[in-house]
UniProtKB/TrEMBL annotation:
Identification of the protein by name: Phosphonate ABC transporter ATPase
Signal peptide: none
Organism, scientific name: Halorubrum hochstenium ATCC 700873
Occurrences of domain ABC transporter (ranges): 3-247
Gene Ontology CC terms, in alphabetical order: membrane
Amino acid sequence: MTLNVTDLRKTYESGDEALKGVDLSVGGSETTAMIGPSGAGKSTFIRCVNRLTEPTSGTVELDGTDLTALDDDGLRAARRDIGMIFQEYNLVERLTVMENVLTGRLGYVSAWRAFRRNFPPEDVERAYEILERVGLGDMENKRVDELSGGQRQRVGIARAVVQQPKILLVDEPTSSLDPETSNTVMRLLTEIAAEREVPVLINIHEVDLAVEHADRIVGLHDGEVVFEGSASELDEGALDRVYRGGDPPASRGSDASGEDAPVGDGSDGGPLVGDGVVSTDGHAPERPTSGGS
Ligand SMILES: Nc1ncnc2c1ncn2[C@@H]1O[C@H](COP(=O)(O)OP(=O)(O)OP(=O)(O)O)[C@@H](O)[C@H]1O
């Protein structure tokens, strides 16, 4: 499975240019982390990939099919192949863990079966297996509103995986989790990518988590990719470009080691890392006054 994004642009109705021509390929069972300061365009990018937000121009090819050219039916079918672990695709609070996971199969069963909650036995079996895999083996009957943040995120992962997607898109999976749980969730995502041989694209604030878990890091600044490489290549210069829009280096050199993780205490305006909470460029992105699209 390969996702090929070419020259993706998004200008909101407000005139805000959130993406200014982004190219990105993701494939194999690779975990790609997208980092960048608040307002860089990370969420816009991931939402444009599955067209929750309509891109202004550019192409998004999933195994050769351009998603931007699909009509509603085509898009609905294509979205079966995209597992989404998104904040706003949140869980249904009053339903059980199992019921939430099975909603991942909704794209495959008829509306009537879904309404009756009458899922095929193989779907139920698959849901049990996945719950076991994410460490919620005995929790299928718990209501989601009784779970911890980490457990909820695991339900979200199980729900995306039960769909048997060809790619996983993940938006800020750890933003409300403590550091230890964040690590566990990131590890789970990368392991599942390897086991199921699907690529994972993760938007993540915390640079240290990206460095530790991702195979590849993509840095966005102001709607443009300003870094792409391995964790060890993410040196001070690269971080400066990502978080402060510094100039690209004349010649590309890398002397950063993996253990010398490029993290800071935020005092220099750079990424603040260490307690699971990151302040990026020190100020929130300006919201357009018109409300936008
Ligand atoms: N619905 C919208 N309407 C208008 N402008 C928007 C909308 N959503 C985002 N923007 C603008 O687009 C730019 C990119 O925002 P986006 O949310 O994609 O960034 P981000 O990197 O995900 O930031 P964060 O890490 O804070 O979530 C920002 O300038 C933002 O104000």
